[in-house]
Batch of 3 targets.
Target 1
Amino acid sequence: MEEMGITDRIDVVEVTVSRQDGSGGPDPRNPHPEKKVPYLIDGDDQVRERGALVAYLTDKFPESGLGRPVGHPQRGAFLSWLFYYQGVMEPVLVLDWAKIDHPALQATFRDLEAVCARLSEALDGQPYILGEEYSAVDLLLSSPFQWLPDAMPTQPAIRDWVRRCADRPAMKVVADRELAGV
């Protein structure tokens, strides 16, 4: 929302959620059916899951330039990367963090090495996943490495890309806000 310049058009409600360390817990104010985040309410419509929220918001606010609207030559790549994050990258990162390994998981989701190889391949010769321009795909896919630096891959192309994404003014505003606990 910060990157899109729409923070004044969306009401953000902070809620507690159950955390891996046992802290937090379900918040009765949380409208998400599973008491998770993120969750967006837009009139009578509701959207959950990070990739779906990114697609929804970039479609709703195309003037931000972060999405690839219907008819754009990169629309398919944009949607593919959003779903790759949700369906492959996030599960692989969680499984790697939890030290869970099984051939069925690798066959279904791939492994961290394959995810990093795919990211490196996409970044070969270009600064961002979709080319020369930063998009919401870069915001979403770089975010785990920004918030969990221990998960940062060793590949220079990925490290440089994450740094470029983190250096954006909107990301600095968000990081400063998080540090301040606001």
Target 2
Amino acid sequence: MTHVREMASADIEAVSTIRVRGWQAAYAGIVPRTYLDAMTVEADASLRRQRFSQPRGKSRDLVALGEHGPVGWVCFGSCRSPIPGPRRVAEVYALYVSPDLIGQGIGRGLLDEAHSRMKGQGFETSALWVLQDNHRARRFYERAGYRADGATEDDVYDEVTLTELRYRRAL
């Protein structure tokens, strides 16, 4: 069983490891191998330390703790892209679990806690972006009540264009 709490600066190395290993596992066969191989925990941790040293913005970072420290991470805040309508919309910016622990409910626990905190901040809807070809993540989010809303966005990774789909759900 894991416990979810706010991320602390002492969690940076663990979160960077989770994020980089998560990318390399989840996006193998989707994102070019050259891009994934170039990712390093050290570079990610350096950027994360820089971000942590700045005044806290409106984004929130939560970690799921296992026996030996963080095993999952979620980051969320106000939606970065305009969505028509009067509702206050939050966005899940990132959600990663240690690849060897996927399927144990850690991601769902992090997502549920993020949803609870979003709702507590007055948000009515949650949105997120997921790579079109990441079928595992799409199934995960669909089981959590998310649905594609028709919006797409293209990102380029080492000269390969990949499409992301925006998903939304009511809180």
Target 3
Amino acid sequence: MLNPTESMATVPMLSGSERLWGTSVVHDLAFLLARANAISLAEANAAAALHGLKVRSYTVLAIAVSDTRPTQRELAEFLRLDPSQIVALVDELESRALVRREPDPNDRRANVVVATDEGRAVYTAAHATVTGSERTIFGVLSEEERMTLMTMLRRLAAAPDALSA
């Protein structure tokens, strides 16, 4: 495969999608993030599937395990999902007895999502598998580069909250 930093002029006769690395889109941050995300999601979904989860349900479970007791509305806002998607994710996890809904002591109209003991056990096993998958996906980066990428992505991921109003 063509190294993304190489010019098409330096590589003779590529075929298939490899030749597309010579197009201008490889300088588009949105494209690069989307492509890296697609690769990362595919691998993470494969890893999470070993535990009966997908990335989204794994993420909700991870947050529930953190003992932050998020409301479904908070989950929807944080994950940038429609509230109906959160309901479906929590329903799925609840049907497997991995989480439960409890009344929010601050707002009786809302529910908080809490991990069960089984949910904690499944999360612990899934986390180990997903983390191993991440090591594979991001293995092309040094530890320092991975930490820098994580720092930059955290900043980018938090920025839209300030921009969307």
